[in-house]
Amino acid sequence: MTTNLTLHLSSAFLLEVTGSSTGTGGTGTQNGSWAYLWNETPPSDVPVSSLLAPGATNNWTPLVLDGSISSNVTFNSTNNDYEVTIALTDSALGSVISSSVYLIVQSEDPNSHTDLTLSSGIGSNVGQILPNAQDWNYGYASFEVTLQNSSSDLGDLTAIPGFAWNMAVNVEYDDGTSQSRGLGITAQSLTNTLSTNNPSAVLTYPTSGGTPYSPLDSVTSMVNSPSNSTFGPSAYPTSDWSSYLAAVAALPNITLSGTTNGEPDANGVWHNSQYYSYAVSTQTLASGAWGAAGTYFVFSPNADSQTQGYIVMGEATLQSNLYAAGQGTMTIWEDSAFTQAYDVPGSAPFGQPQTNVIGTSANNQWGNILTPFFTGFTAGYWGTTSQSPNTMMPTSSSATNLGGGNVGLNTTLNWSPAYAFDVNRVGTIPTYQHNDYWSQQFFNDSNIYGSAFSDNLSVGLTTGPLIPLSQPDGAQNVSNIDLYVYGSTETATTYFTPVATSIYLPLPGGQSDYLPVTTASASTSGPQLIVSGQTAGLFPESTLGVQLGLYQGNGQFTYVTLPPASNSNTGQTDYWQNYSVTNNGGTWTASAGGPNDEGTFIINTLPMSTTATANQVYWYQLVFTDSGGDQKVFNFYAEQGASGGTINTGATDFAADGGATLAPVAGQPGQMKLALNPAVSMPVSMLIFDYNSQFSAMPAAPVAGTLSGTTFTPFDGQDSIGITGNQYATGSQTAAPDITIDVGSTLAFGWTGTNNYSAANYNVSTSTPVWTTAYTNKIVANHIALVTIYEGTTAIAHVQATADLDGQWTTSADTQQLGKGTYTVSMQEYLSDGTTIFGTGTSAPAPVSAVLSLAVNLQQLSLQMTPEGDALQFAPHGDLRDGAGNWLHFDPVAGTQLTQGAQLLLYATTADGTLVGRDGTIGGSVTISDATLARLGSMQSDGGIDLLKLGQTLFLPDDQQLHFALLNGDGTITARPDVHITPQSNGSMTVTGAGLSFSVTVDNGLNHQDYLASGQRSSNLPVVYLTQGEAIHVEVAGSAKNANTIHFVRFDYDHDTDTILGVGGVAYGNTDAFRAAVQANWDPNFAVQNGDGTFHVNQDWSVGGQQGFYAPVLVTPTGDIFVPGTANIDGRVHVQTYGENVFAFEDVRADHGGDFDYNDMVVKLSVL
């Protein structure tokens, strides 16, 4: 698809440049003027103009040469202008990521002329344009484009470096519509205004001492802007901002809220779209990693902000950005004390060390947060209190007008173009500089970029500076862009006046107050009001109170509560309903008449007045109240239509404030839609978040690898990601990844960026976009990536990772062990509690990711005795990679037993006997308990009868030995009990230790019961990981005088340290509060009481609580509660693991004579 640009030159422009309205050149000058169109990225098949000197590049299209119009420019009699067309894209250049087209007009002595078209001038180097404008005597204007055949392709006119010529742009689309951008006043008027404000910023064309060089002699060539990196610093010193900056630094309550786009940064690293809510303060800091001693602005995240991390920026750096964004650096921290630096992905090219120091305009979630902060200076919002232009609005809120009072602009939630640059300001306007004069002129009279913050200033304006360059269907770019150049005294004929989204409707002539809607005057017909509360990724909380305010006159309202009701679409009680508001005997009431989708509610027949006449104005309010009593009030306005119960439907017949917009519904004259825009209008306390798809229906598949210490090493061959929503994964790369591995231990999983495949991560040397240049599977900061491993349809293991500040994750705390078999692995995003799926309670919970197919094929090893004869090891074998080993199965021999209450600890060492911790730590402070891979015991009744069949399974790394220690009932350990090992003919071993004999067999096939014990092997605790609704069979046996009760409790669990943290938020410990929390949180679906002798019963259990780690707890008839570990009233351990998924209790306190034989109640779990 070819996109051309047609440049239109007016006769007035040619007259000013050449002295002739036809461009043929005037008399009385030396013809020293030149004009060009310069294209930054011309297609390679565009030839160099034959009208230019040898050595010129194909960037240049001549317009005026030596004082006369160039022959390639033709007169169009229909348009009455002079035109030339160039190709921006064609068959040789199919797309343009970011480019600029410049109009350059030069006037100087022809005897010492600098030919800009040569490499000694500008040539093809865009970097030569800005700094040489004064020395080479030219002015310029620019149009920026992106052309990728995408719906997001945009163009803009920019005066960010300075202003020279009046240009406008018009684009016609294939549906018959068109859009324009430009200047609403003459270039001369704007030039005079800017020059008068700052004469030192003015550049002029040179003047001849004799015959003029051209008609442009002594004419202003350009007025440089504050953002101009060459001329701005001297003309606009940053000290201009000192007084305002000091005033802002003293403000206590600045808050920033909004969303950032999902997009890659300059180093090709993708950062997710996310919501931010930050507070701004100042701190005086000593010198440190953030910089020299001095005053710093600190940006602190709200707890519910999806963007997290503290931003620290020096006061001087901040000040340097107020005229020209992108100056200096800032630092990112994980904590408010700035002790934990966060190395930002993309702060350096991939493969180089990342750092917490980033540029102030970095295209990531932290850099983008600064845009509204800087905009607050540009528009003069900070420290400003405004008032509604509605003259009936009272100066304070009351029960009869909840929206009364002034509007504080120290929060972005209250911003509107209607308040920018002191409009509707309350109080005395400061005499010091408190906004950007340059930006104000372009804001007032153009839709041209006047500063880097024009986008933010134009929020709420129709139109802003950006103009769409794709056809309405978004599939391809427009075929032509019309760019117009006018003379200095001409006004653009294509200019579209920006219209602010009105925050109120003024009273028309003859109407002294807004129309009251009273029960006495209410009509029985009216428009339908559709209220949309959805923004990508968030909604207003469903538990908010909602009221409709009906105007009663004289600034007073009566309020109608919209009652929540059951909603079959959301599965909850909420206000996303269809409401009818009725007048019942002089009282307004609202009733729900059926559910709506989450994010939308409707008020049918919005009350109106029977006494209204056409074009009179209504004023309504919509009020949201949270549980703490805080409120958000939206005022909205509409006009009476030609007949009763109708409304006018022109775009300017509606208004709303508070960040909302009210507009007609296309094709539905009886409807209007109030968009709440909650991300930028409502405080975070009123919001709930759902899953934001980030351009993909589901996240990419997790990456599998091994973990050694903190080093994750991905397996080779993971050459696809399983999703089609990533534009850089094509063909077979979109398939589900499928690999075979030969290790069964130290398995971990990570996000796509941990992959070593060449297409995964950005290579700065090739500048080729890759998977992680677009969305893959990053999640919200501090959320949990829960990775689930399935065998068939059964989930056999769960591991999790906490996302870092950029959403990257690796399951570094929970390595997994797998037996021989084929598995699928997927990830799902959870809240930071690790139990609640992100988006639960909304219509868009986080989906399960694409799956990784994982085949495990372990080399079978042979088992043998160690030379000492009291431990096991594998027979010599070839080199295997880290994580290799085999599974050992342990089956006790009937009739053998340990001393009642004792257990064998099966622990790992190196070949020289050095202890190896379960986390891989070797030697040092590692204890036998740390090195224990599993436990095995025997369990008999008081009468000597075996209570339950016990067994055990563990994974032994190929280079380690398995030793045996005896844990006695009193808690002491016999490190080297008497152990005898006898090899068997089938390759197994029979081990007898401390009286218990058992067979040990190498078998890499595992069943679901083996996987249920994963948590016990990783933590050495009596725990199992269960999911809500999972079906478990429980055997309960024992030999006790007490009739005890067994329960299961979900414990708060630290995956990093494999420790129990507490229950229900109450800290683990030997406290009554902890035991009360245990009692309050045991699973309601299971309890078995038995005792008064020897017993053995069975019961099935459907887990009623949330997923997580569960452990058994025992309650005695006297009310003692015994839990895992020592958080018991006597400080002793009352529950031990005696085999795979077998947990045994002592039911009597130590201070009451407990014998700690652990046979009082024994439970064994198995998967149904």
Can you describe this structure?
It is a single chain. With 1168 residues, the chain is mainly beta. It has six domains: 3-226, Thaumatin; 239-378, no CATH class; 528-689, no CATH class; 703-856, no CATH class; 863-1006, Jelly Rolls, CATH 2.60.120; 1018-1167, Calcium-mediated lectin (Jelly Rolls). The chain is 8% helix and 36% strand. It has 13 helices and 72 strands. The strands form 17 sheets. Strands 63, 64, 65, 66, 67, 68, 69, 70, 71 and 72 form a ten-stranded antiparallel β-sheet that branches. A seven-stranded antiparallel β-sheet has the order 4-3-2-7-8-9-26, covered by helices on one side. The two termini are 61 Å apart.
Give me the number of helical elements.
Answer: 13
Spans of at least 5 consecutive residues whose pLDDT stays below 50 are: none
The largest pleated sheet is described as:
10 strands, antiparallel
What is the CATH topology assignment of the largest domain?
Thaumatin
In which range does the helix fraction lie? under 10%
Q: Which architecture name of the largest domain does CATH use?
A: Sandwich
Q: Globular, elongated, flat, extended or rod-shaped: what is the shape?
A: globular
What is the highest CATH level, the class of the largest domain? Mainly Beta
Distance between the termini: 61 Å
What oligomeric state do these chains adopt?
single chain
C-alpha-based Rg, rounded:
37 Å
